[in-house]
Design a protein that fits this description.
- With 174 residues, the chain is mostly helical.
- It has one domain (2-123).
- It has helices at residues 2-24, 29-46, 50-66, 70-80, 90-98, 110-173.
- It is rod-shaped and about 105 Å long.
- It starts with a helix and ends with a helix.
Length: 174
């Protein structure tokens, strides 16, 4: 459910980012079109069975190996960010995204905007995962403490039972 929510959130935010960015800053039309193609491809791939997603991932990996460009970096990063894929590697995604260059005129480009957005997305996912781990560790510590307290109470109860038996034995002996 979280992965689906995250996927939908990414798609909505990317669409809004592209619309807002295109309205305020002149963008190279080719890059904007390519970003649209990348997002449409990402959406298509997320709906495929895992076996076909894997083929798409390896094709993106091969394309990046043959000709590293902003387009191939972004495509591979998106393939690695597909929900529930076993080849997800956040540090590799961040390295890919860090390689996307700002436009030569110093203005951001659709590629760079997408890379920055995806970086923030990955960072937020990592933060959420760390928070979940922290909560899990707290729960484990609470469980450990409760088990320890339960063990101590069991020992006290056993000691009270032993004392009770001893007192009954003394009463019967009189």
């Amino acid at each position: 459910m979280r992965a689906l929510r995250s996927c939908l959130a990414v798609m909505v935010m990317l669409a809004l980012m592209m619309l807002a960015g295109c309205a305020t800053v002149p963008r190279p039309m080719e890059e904007a079109r390519n970003v649209s193609v990348l997002l449409a491809n990402y959406n298509r791939v997320t709906l495929l069975p895992m076996e076909q997603q894997q083929r798409e991932f390896y094709a993106a990996l091969d394309a990046q190996g043959k000709s590293a460009s902003d387009m191939t970096r972004l495509n591979l990063a998106l393939m690695m960010l597909a929900p529930r894929v076993p080849w997800r590697n956040d540090s590799a995604v961040m390295a890919l995204l860090a390689g996307v260059k700002i436009a030569q005129d110093g203005q951001s480009s659709p590629y760079h905007d997408l890379a920055q957005f995806l970086m923030r997305f990955v960072i937020e996912e990592i933060r959420e995962e760390l928070e979940e781990r922290r909560k899990l560790e707290q729960l484990n510590q609470q469980l450990h403490d409760e088990r320890q307290r339960s063990g101590e109470l069991r020992q006290k109860l056993d000691a009270l039972h032993a004392t009770d038996r001893e007192m009954r034995t003394r009463r019967k002996a009189r």
